[in-house]
Amino acid sequence: MLTDTTAIAILLVSFLVMILLRIHIAYAVGISSTLCLLYLGIPLTNVCQQMVKGLSSFSLMAVPFFITMGCLMGAGGISDKLIDLANSLVGWMHGGLAMVNIVASYFFGGISGSATADTASIGKLMIPMMVDAGYDDDFSTAVTITSSVEGLLVPPSHNMVIYATSAGGISVGALFMAGYLPGALLAVSLMIGSYIISMKRHYPKGDKFNLKVFIKQLGRSIWALLAILIVVVGVVAGVFTATESAAIAVVYSLIISLAVYRELDWKGVWRVLGDCIDTLSIVLILCGTSSIFGYCLTYLHVPDLAANAIVGLTDNRIILILLLNLILLVLGCIMDMAPIILIATPILFPIAQSIGIDAIQFGVMMILNCGIGLLTPPVGSCLFIGSAVSGVKIERIVKATLPFYLCMIIVLLLISFVPQVSLLIPSLVGY
After folding, report:
1. pLDDT score at 379
2. What is d(CA 154, CA 7) in angstroms, rounded to the nearest whole number?
3. This prediction's pTM
4. How many angstroms separate the Cα of 255 from the Cα of each of 46, 186, 218, 258, 280?
5. How far does Cα 116 stand from its chain's mean position?
6. Nearest to residue 280, comparing CAs of 306, 246, 324?
7. What HEC string does 331-379 produce?
8. pLDDT at 1
9. Which of 6, 57, 148, 161 has its CA 20 to 30 A from that of 406?
10. What is the DSSP code (8-state) at residue 94?
11. CB–CB of 370/329 below 8 Å?
């Protein structure tokens, strides 16, 4: 047992030290795992074997396709059309542009599946528009970054695919369906928070709702929205797998961006694909090195030790659920989203199952917790992107985001303690 304890310390302490030294997490995971294997005397050929094993998943192949689809759609002139659609739908309210921002993020999330892409694309258009209309710049940025989290819940979310793989082959289609209602609840809660703040600060509202204008904007946006149907309906109906649907969606996105909206030319396509490769290289390296890390955790029985330690604290189910959320929220403050899913799922998923949390429900819980982490210092990527886009200091953005943190926590608690929030739609469609 002494050897196991020492090996666990080498694995975890070296990993934390490298994180504090700002070594990229993909390499920190791989190096700490290699040091642990060296100490245990396990052949280093296992490193290569586990990396290949971690990447040789048919479901995981969907991740590169979904990221590529989001990049093509984001660069293909989709953002402004979705903003116009959202404006025709909710722009008439008090704080109308804040509502437009939130609803546009819900639509855009169904195309990109990425909170950072949402923050960059929607933020570049909406933040200057809101500031020019009389909204405070810190409020405008706070609305943009918090609403971007909707894109993590609304399919096609590549992070849900990563969770499905990490949790042992959970249905991607069920996870996709499970995200719609929580994503809508998050949007409604943020809209309520924005409405209250807008009334207190006397922010303006837009023109009255016009059905003809809405139908016109819907017609302009329909080609973009059809990308969502290709993925979701195809997977749920069993026409094709998540990976096949993602590949088809990439081809569709290319055609729409080049031939329909014509916001992208072939030179722009190559530029977008270059950006995709930069993103995918890190994501896939991380998936490979995390597989080694997971192998070490399993070999050393860390999930069992962690489960016994956490469950040993109390047998109160409510406290255990709150503790799981707290652990994920803390991890979100110091790690990016994909590493948390890949590293924490093998440890926390068995604990969640032991207290009766459904695998789909826990997946939605984890995704939202990680999404909140994207908004918190010191490593919140959406927070930094929002600051870069708006030019507002991070301290002011965090202060302006505090009311929206409360909205998000309320939704998180609903997801955690009311299983049907996540499971209603999957059960209705037969999962």
Report:
1. 66
2. 40
3. 0.81
4. 43, 32, 19, 5, 22
5. 9
6. 246
7. HHHHCCHHHHHHHHHHHHHHHHHHCCCCHHHHHHHHHHHHHHHCCCCCC
8. 44
9. 161
10. B
11. no
Query: In which residue are the tokens 């080694």 written?
Result: 292
Residue stretches of the chain with pLDDT short of 70: 1-3, 57-60, 74, 76-77, 110-113, 235-238, 242, 378-379, 431
Orientation of helix 317-334 relative to helix 337-354, angle to 10° = 170
Closest CA to 299 of 49, 16, 36, 29: 36
* Amino acid in the structure at residue 24: H
Q: Give dist(CA 366, CA 290) in Å, integer.
A: 17
Distance CA 134, CA 138 (A): 12
d(CA 108, CA 154): 9
- CA–CA separation, 118 vs 137, rounded Å? 18
Q: How far apart, in whole angstroms, are the C-alpha atoms of residue 156 and residue 172?
A: 10
Between helix 172-201 and helix 137-147 the angle, nearest 10°, is 160
- How many distinct helices (H) and strands (E) make up the chain? 21, 0
Smallest CA-to-CA distance from 154 within 115, 100, 113, 122 is with 113
Q: How many residues does the structure list for the chain?
A: 431
50-54: list long-range contacts, CB under 8 Å, 24+ apart. Answer: 50/288, 50/291, 50/292, 50/294, 50/295, 51/288, 51/289, 51/291, 51/292, 52/288, 53/291, 54/287, 54/288, 54/289, 54/290, 54/291, 54/292, 54/294
